[in-house]
Amino acid sequence: MAHPPTKPPVAMDDIRSARARIEDKIRVTPVMTSATLDALLHARVFLKCENFQRAGVFKTRGAFNAVFSLSDSEAVRGVVTSSSGNHAAAISLAARTRGIRAYIAMPKIALQSKVAAVRRYGGEIVWVAGRGEIPTSDEFEAAVARIQIETNATTVHPYNDRRTIAGQGTCALEFLEECPDLDFMLAPVGGGGLLSGTAVAAKALNSDIKVIGCEPAMADDAHRSLRAGRIIPQTMPRTIADGLRTSLGDLTFALISTGVDDIVTVTEDGIVAAMRLAWDILKIVIEPSSAVALAALLERRVPAEGKKVGIIVSGGNVDLDNLPWNKK
Amino acid sequence: MAHPPTKPPVAMDDIRSARARIEDKIRVTPVMTSATLDALLHARVFLKCENFQRAGVFKTRGAFNAVFSLSDSEAVRGVVTSSSGNHAAAISLAARTRGIRAYIAMPKIALQSKVAAVRRYGGEIVWVAGRGEIPTSDEFEAAVARIQIETNATTVHPYNDRRTIAGQGTCALEFLEECPDLDFMLAPVGGGGLLSGTAVAAKALNSDIKVIGCEPAMADDAHRSLRAGRIIPQTMPRTIADGLRTSLGDLTFALISTGVDDIVTVTEDGIVAAMRLAWDILKIVIEPSSAVALAALLERRVPAEGKKVGIIVSGGNVDLDNLPWNKK
After folding, report:
1. Does 3.40.50.1100 match the CATH number of domain B59-155?
2. ipTM confidence
3. CB contact, 8 Å: A286 with chain B?
4. Residue ranges of chain A assigned to CATH 3.40.50.1100
5. Is this prediction's pTM over 0.90?
6. Is residue A14's pLDDT more than 60?
7. Nearest CB to A283 within list B35, B52, B325
8. DSSP state, A278?
């Protein structure tokens, strides 16, 4: 017996509303091309450069959408989230822009550059100590719950949150308005917020487009989850793509299952090579997580030959003292 | 007794003609801004990103203008130049685009990345051996003259050439069309091709604008030449800004003397700090020579506070294996 059709957790209307809510606060990022790259890949490649987004990452979109979705009475109590990376900085920036408090649960081992970004944007860091070296996601959730109870702040999940996903979808919306006839759209997948929003927007605007998630082989939980038809969590991945170590949530799993055509995986060497290629040829600073989609083209994991391929370059926050090609 | 007014070697008409000649062959580069940078500098800063120009450098403009200025009968004999750097690649690309030969006199010690760029664009390298480790400019000139006699190719000087200067001026023309009311325009100065073209265009389009040349203190020949009222050649400068080690020519000296308001100098540490800041905050790969103008703001060598400041970011060709902040 067929189930009645269920409303998807995020639809195109939510993405359009998000865009109206955030468009005067975020940056419309440029789309770049390179004749050298096209010749190398035998394809026409378009890169949507979210490394130029405010705070250096696409997550600014979802963070602003979530923070500016709050009613005034909610907003006055602030927002809380846990993140050791880009979402922390993005939420801090969005909260400061609205003039409210942001509580950020971070592990003691967070990179100094990420801590500095949160502080620069005025986020209030709450250190989370775990029993192990790295706090578990349960320990983070407990910390967020504790802060939430103490402050009555609103929790904004980094990816498994309708407001976050709708905000991330504004990137593909902009991208397809500028380049409507792409054959493929590639985005990296970690927790799946970006890929979910991308799939919703891309399929709504261009029913022929193929949406491909790109993932490190060393953190291939989304690939395995899609094959298995259920969420398979990622355990302790060591990939250089530090933004992609998280597992899918129920909302992102549902949206990706419906809207994504395939998830392909790439090697660690491929990620480093793609990152370096972008720096060398395109003259843009991109982080390893962003290089994963370009790596999928370089490693011929997508049948892109002769096609128009859009890549969402997700962010550019790297530690310049610790570049992968300078390691011995 | 007053001399009669002499026609300047390059005028605004030449720059407009250059633009018409090259506009379908080069890239209109983006102008970038950063709220973080503005807050740091207490100014509104606009960066014209020639690191995104074809071949990764503004010199593509002058090279295309020179190569496409040739008559068909001249063009068929090819072009010749000497350069160990960006001009070599730019001329090779322009010649290939026109379908003619480019002879490039290079020293054996040229960086591998520069040699590879010339080869990628089909330039024919003629190695120049000097009596010392690095061939002198006389030895280069002799090599170019020899090739010129053998091939009847047209010589295109990297900076002291009307066609080159007019081409470089198209950058400021684009820049001021997008940002007409800048108070300052800053450009690096080596041989002076970019700064000369910038001064001609900027003063023609906005008579109030201040044009400032920016130079490493370790290669301050333009600064000293302007003060002295005659060309003082640079001898063996060791600055990290490898594109700015050359001396002015008679044409660039004349144009800079007339059109440039000041030349300021910066430290080597300032250049590295500015380069790193651009990578970190703006997420763009820029070369040390490009960082000199940003360094002038960071080191407060320009009274920019509260003003609108345009910076020409000249190029992005760096050796990623050899970054200045990774050196011990």
Report:
1. yes
2. 0.92
3. yes
4. 12-57+161-326, 59-155
5. yes
6. yes
7. B52
8. I
